[in-house]
Automatic annotation (TrEMBL), chain A:
It holds the Pfam family zf-Tim10_DDP. It comes from Caulochytrium protostelioides. Residues 19-80 form the Tim10-like domain. GO terms for cellular component: mitochondrial inner membrane. Heterohexamer. It is found in: Mitochondrion inner membrane. Mitochondrial intermembrane chaperone that participates in the import and insertion of some multi-pass transmembrane proteins into the mitochondrial inner membrane. Also required for the transfer of beta-barrel precursors from the TOM complex to the sorting and assembly machinery (SAM complex) of the outer membrane. Acts as a chaperone-like protein that protects the hydrophobic precursors from aggregation and guide them through the mitochondrial intermembrane space. This is Mitochondrial import inner membrane translocase subunit. SUPFAM superfamilies: Tim10-like (SSF144122). Keywords: Chaperone, Disulfide bond, Membrane, Mitochondrion, Mitochondrion inner membrane, Protein transport, Translocation, Transport. Belongs to the small Tim family.
Automatic annotation (TrEMBL), chain B:
Residues 10-67 form the Tim10-like domain. It comes from the Eukaryota. This is Mitochondrial import inner membrane translocase subunit. Mitochondrial intermembrane chaperone that participates in the import and insertion of some multi-pass transmembrane proteins into the mitochondrial inner membrane. Also required for the transfer of beta-barrel precursors from the TOM complex to the sorting and assembly machinery (SAM complex) of the outer membrane. Acts as a chaperone-like protein that protects the hydrophobic precursors from aggregation and guide them through the mitochondrial intermembrane space. Keywords: Chaperone, Disulfide bond, Membrane, Mitochondrion, Mitochondrion inner membrane, Protein transport, Translocation, Transport. The lineage of its organism: Eukaryota, Fungi, Fungi incertae sedis, Chytridiomycota, Chytridiomycota incertae sedis. Heterohexamer. Belongs to the small Tim family. The twin CX3C motif contains 4 conserved Cys residues that form 2 disulfide bonds in the mitochondrial intermembrane space. InterPro entries: Tim10-like, Tim10-like_dom_sf. It is found in: Mitochondrion inner membrane. The keyword Protein transport applies. One of its GO terms (cellular component) is mitochondrial inner membrane. It is a peripheral membrane protein.
Length: 86, 77
């Protein structure tokens, strides 16, 4: 892939690219979180695969995200509560 | 020669697809090929095929669950 120089683009293309990058940044933040939860919860919930996710699989995956977030909040609260003040 | 806007956007999308592929590949290999043998068996291949689809189902389900939670908590995370 050749070097990208923003000066090579017209003003209209520049505006489009900036809009694309901003939208991608927002999407990437959300997707990184979902990727992380999927990695954690796939390991916990999925032991075999079939032609579709079973009802149990779906329940486990949904509960897993909810509980992971609860756990995240709890750990964060604990660390903030016990953090030494500098 | 200068690169076009479409090429920049396509390149970003290709890189994201590649990262996704690597995650699915390692999860499905771990789940389906529990004891690597001298051949890739048809059962392993079938498992990997289904696993690829199920991993994407799982991603979509988790995405929806997370989105609903963010709405419920007012974007507190």
């Amino acid at each position: 892939m050749p070097e990208i120089d923003i000066a090579d683009f017209s003003d209209a293309d520049k505006a489009d690219l900036i809009q694309f990058v901003e939208a991608e940044k927002r999407r990437a933040t959300f997707q990184t979180a979902v990727n992380n939860y999927t990695d954690v919860c796939w390991e916990k919930c999925i032991t075999r695969v079939n032609s579709s996710l079973s009802k149990d699989d779906k329940t486990c995956l949904s509960n897993c995200v909810e509980r992971f977030l609860d756990s995240t909040i709890a750990v964060l609260g604990k660390l903030q509560g016990t953090a030494p003040s500098h | 020669m200068a690169i076009s806007k479409t090429e920049v956007i396509d390149q970003v999308k290709r890189e994201m697809a590649l990262a996704n592929f690597q995650r699915i590949n390692s999860k499905c290999f771990k789940l389906c090929v529990t004891r690597p043998g001298t051949t890739f068996t048809s059962a392993e291949k079938e498992c990997v095929n289904q696993c690829t689809d199920r991993f994407q189902d799982a991603w979509n389900l988790i995405s929806q669950t997370y989105m609903a939670r963010l709405k419920r908590d007012g974007g507190a995370h």
